[in-house]
Amino acid sequence: MAFIEMKNVTKTYQMGEVEIKALDEVGFAVEKGEFVVIVGPSGAGKTTILNILGGMDTATSGKIYVDNEAVSSFDEKALTAYRRDDVGFVFQFYNLVGNLTALENVELALQISKNPLSAKAVLQEVGLSNRLDSFPAQLSGGEQQRVSIARALAKNPKLLLCDEPTGALDYITGKSILKLLQDTCREKGVTIIVITHNLAIAPMADKVIKVKNGKIDQILMNKRPTPVEYIEW
Amino acid sequence: MTKGLRKDFRRSIRKSFSRFLSILLISALGVAFFAGVRTAAPAMEASADATYDSQSLMDIRVLGTLGMTTEDVAAFLGLEGVEDAEGIYTADYLCETEGASVVVKVSSMTNRINLVRVTEGRYPESYDECIVDQAFLDASGYALGDTVRLRTGTEDSVSDMLATDEYRIVGVGESAYYMDSDRGTASIGDGTGDGMMIIPKEAFTEEIFSEVLIRITGADTLNCFSDEYADLLANVTANIEAIEQGRCEVRLQQFREDADNQLNDARYEYQQQKDKAMRDLSDAYQALAASEAELENAQLEINQTRQQLQDLQALFDAGDQTIDASRDQIAEARATLTDLEEQKAAIEQQIAEDEATIAEMEEQLRADAPYISSDEYYRRSLEIIQATATVEYYKSQLPSVERSIAAVEQQVETAEAFINNYPEAAAAARERIAAGEVELAEAEKRVQDGEIELERAKEDYAVAEEDAEAELAAAEERLQNTENEINNVETPQWYVLDRTSVPSYASFQNDTESIRAVGTVFPIIFFLVAALVSLTTMTRMVEEERTQIGTLKALGYGKRAILSKYIFYALLSTLLGAIFGAVLGEALLPNLILRTYRLVYTGLSETVFTIHIPNAAIAAVLSVLATVGGAAVAGGRVLTESPSALMRPEAPQTGKHIALENVDFIWMRLNFSQKAALRNLFRYKKRLFMTVFGVASCMALLLVGFGISDSVERVPDKQYGDVFAYQGTVGTDTSLSRAERRQLLAKVGSVQGVADYLQARSVVTYAQTDAGEATAYLIVPQDTAKFSEYVRLQTRVTNEPFGLTDDGVLITEKFAKLLDVQVGDMITLKDDKTAVPVGQVRVAGIVENYLNHYIYMTPNVYQALYGETATLNAALIKTEAGADSDAVAAEILEIGGVTSVTMNTTAERQVQTMLDNLTVIIAVLIVAAGLLAFIVLYNLNNINITERRRELATLKVLGFYNRELAAYVYRENVILTLTGTVLGIGLGFLLHWFVMRTIATDIVMYSVEIAPLSCLWSVLITLGFSVIVNWLMYFRLKKIDMVESTKSVE
Fold first, then answer.
1. A71 is a domain residue
2. Which of A89, A97, A111 is the closest to B957 by Cβ?
3. Does B558 have pLDDT greater than 60?
4. For residue A209, is it within any domain?
5. B242-469 CATH pick, 1.10.3300, 1.10.287, 3.40.50, 1.25.40
């Protein structure tokens, strides 16, 4: 069995009398240590996949397995434990706690983690060793996203989920963040799933899952992923 | 506003209806509380006034020291400003019931003033019918239709004033005069009235009215608590006082005449009684003498009988000897008899021989006659004659001998009979002697008894004589006293009293003032908090819609057009809320408060609700200003930014290091969550301030609520428990002589339960300084040293004890404050009757005291000041622990010469009842505090969670359990709540001090204190409210959607 398996996952929302299918029989597998990019236009269902995979939302039907555990059958409490121990989350808008310094934002995640890494070490790894005591508002967008990544990584998760990590960043900063993610995947063997609407990023992934109208449109495998440095958009 | 904006406005109300509603409700609450509580006091006054007017309660009552006459009534009716005047009789009686006696305030039925509302039954129609109030029925256990019997409780008789002492209850009624359970004081029983009884005027046999009730022209249209009323009252009072002197002189004249007539009658009666007593005594004396003589005769008789018996006995003792002698006598007599018979025989033989001789001689002679010479014949005839004479002599001797024989025979016979009868006679005689002796013994016993009785009778007589003499002497003295009194009677005085003398009036006014005091401060706080919360909500709304504002601005809308939405939103919600709140508050709160007070003031038959527009208007305007102002300021601030800046998410507020982080030794010790919590606190300063303020207000309200109760409740306790160590005051008749007084006090001292007493002079007096004039009780204890056992004389704060010395007077604290004097200052005292200044005296000390004012003075100081020794007119008494003070009071009142008994427990109870009414205020404050805590905490928590939804959602994504998330938020709340609580304690103490100053009356000094237990309760309730709100918030936290975290910043 693959590290992550989604089988026939359907998610429907009841909007008044109308039923909206956000996901329709979605199924794919991700191997451990893979760098996966889920790509698709707005409203295709990328975020819903990420939310369900991250234990923030539940599927209406279908099965989700992560590291041989049936996440789809978790109750709320088990899902919370799953989120705190197994998943790292990187948000488009970083979602740092404004009132905490970079270091403290990382510590915020660590204090509930079972098996954490050193906050300072992780921040050093993401290149922020000189900004430890800065508040988010004093950091640039890229720096904030680095803190966000450090916060996710410091938990030592099995799975790193990134929701449009470069969406709010300029080109150069975005690129450096993607590089950080790719390096992390390569060097630490963390399974990373990035969702984006930017198809240009796709070549850097081991696997590209294209989503369209709540369905898997196409799954491509890159035998030799392109390093971020060579990608232009 | 364009059509689009209007549509947006309507939709934004519909979309954010909960916010619209919350502003509406908060302003409604603030206004309701503000307007409602402030309207409560006027409503209470209006209701009381309406109740008074509905029963035509008097405005003034005039009491005269010698009563009031119909001429007085007529004089009043002629005065300007007097609409009506009516005389009534009043008296206090006891009414015996099972197990207790009830003190009933009896007054005559009136026609026009002080009307009684009959709630059940009918008005009395006959002189022996009455109406009573429910309090009487409750106290006595009687029911409609029963007949009650009155007793004076003193030496006087009911018939002195009333036509009958039995009255049938034909109706149950209410009088505005007795609105609550207080029936005033009484001169009998335990000193307090228990119930009211109204009987027809005809039931009173008196001619002199007890008092005259007066209604003032035009007073019923005025609120009797208002200044206008007070002015009117002052005018009419002045008019009445103007005729006092004249009327009183007339009354004195009349009184003297009546009294002289009565005295003469009394004298006549006394004389008759005296004569009768004397007659009775003399009769008794004669009876005594007669019985003494009788006894003497009896004794004499006894003595005679005894002599006879003794003689008899002697006879018997001689009896046996007599028998022997009789036997000898018989023998002797028989011998004598034999001799006598022999003698007789010899005489008879001699006679026969002599007669034979004579016959022979005669024969011889006759035979010889012729033969013998004449001489011889003659000689022989002579011999015969001589012989015959001898025979004759013998014959004559015979009867005597025969008689002797017969006598001796008789003697023998008698003696024999005596000997034969003796045994029988002796037995009979012995019996008689025995019986005689028994009789004698009895007779002697009788005499002895008689003597004892006589002795007793003599003693009785002596006592009766003494008593009669004493009684007569006393009666004579009384007559003399009465005469002196009549001669000494001073010109009577009037007491012109207004409605403050109505028992319920003062306490009702007091309660109204308390509510007013509550209405001055609290609604403001409450209102302030409500306004702040609305303001925060409005500010929040503007900030939430900054993107939209930016868009509108980019589209070219003017500032005014954009701002108008928020201003109208605030205006509409607040105004609607204010109107709603004003109507609700003014209708509901006074109603609620009045309803609660009606539990106490059961006689409050009318309830008037005044809509007080100014209060509502003030509240509404202030609310609107706060919210609209808030919206305008927040909107104005947002509008100064450029559209592009507005359309970008607001740059997150920079996190800041807080000062505490520099204090390493504290900061290092805090764990991560604590640090985060602390930093968050200082980040959301507005929320910090609001929460702390809200919690502090809640805490302060609670503290004040409990504190009022503490301070006020402790007054009777402190006064009668700590300051006064004695339990009652006995008023004594000043006309008593020294000896009578001593006797009276000995009686008081021997009453069961009385431990000790101290004689004193106690009068109400006037004292004056430059700062003003005030009345106080002047107490002059006879024994200065002992006085400190009766009253604790010390300063309040430092507990520095004072002795009562000739150095000056001790005055009580509040009194000193009123007169504005310090230790060492001089005060001017006035005569208690004439109010003429008598002199100045030095204040030697200011002592702790809570109720009323007192001046304590030694007899020497009194003498020096007044120029006369202090006439003792009272005794302070101490009772034994556990003694029933009512029973003690009742027993002391029965003692002649005691004019009044005031037990401190009674006073304490009265004060206590009055103070219990404060519960209403406390309830209002606690409810207010609770509402406040809810509004503030709920709203702020809500805002907090809404504002930080993203942050909280992120934490959820990071894997925080709900309880960890809650802890993260609650940690801040806990700190804020605790801070608020601590600040609230300070604020509460301050407010409490302020409120106590506001509600303080002249005669009461509240001890401004809040009990530790009250603090504890306030803290617990505050924390409790906080816990409840936070618990409710937990559900909101649980509902936070993690998907929010992935959305962009709005």
1. no
2. A89
3. yes
4. yes
5. 1.10.287
Query: CA end-to-end span of chain B, whole Å?
Result: 25
* Rounded Cα distance, A94 and A103, in Å: 14
Q: What is the separation of C-alpha A174 from the centre of its chain, rounded to a whole number of angstroms?
A: 15
Segment B118-128 mean pLDDT: 91
Strand order in the sheet with A191-196: A87-90, A159-163, A191-196, A35-39, A207-212, A215-221
B1010: helix, coil or strand? coil
* Domain carrying residue A168: 32-58+87-230
B288-304: pLDDT as tens digits? 888 888 888 888 888 88
Share of chain B above pLDDT 70, in %: 96
The half-sphere exposure of B1041 on its side-chain side, counting CA atoms within 13 A, is 7
Three-state DSSP at B205 gives coil
Q: Do B672 and A111 touch (CB under 8 A)?
A: yes
* CB-based contact, B955 to chain A, within 8 Å: yes
Apex A204 CA angle, A200 and A207, nearest 5: 100
pTM, full prediction: 0.63
The domain that contains A206 carries what CATH number? 3.40.50.300
Candidates B679, B960, B1046; nearest CB to A91: B1046
Residue type, B634: A
Domain assignments of chain B as residue spans, ordered by start: 1-55+519-651, 56-241, 242-469, 720-911
Give pLDDT, residue B932.
74
Q: Which two tokens stand for residue A159?
A: 């799975």
**Region for residue B820 given its phi and psi (left: phi exceeds 0; alpha: psi -120 to 50; beta: otherwise):** left
Q: How confident is the model at residue B653 (pLDDT cuts 50, 70, 90)?
A: low
Q: How far is B946 from chain A (nearest CA, A)?
A: 15
Q: Mutate which of B1046, B1047, B1048 to disrupt the A interface (most A C-beta within 10 Å)?
A: B1046
C-alpha pair distances (Å), B855 with each of B724, B789, B861: 14, 17, 12
Nearest to B977 by CA among B1008, B1017, B933, B1034: B933
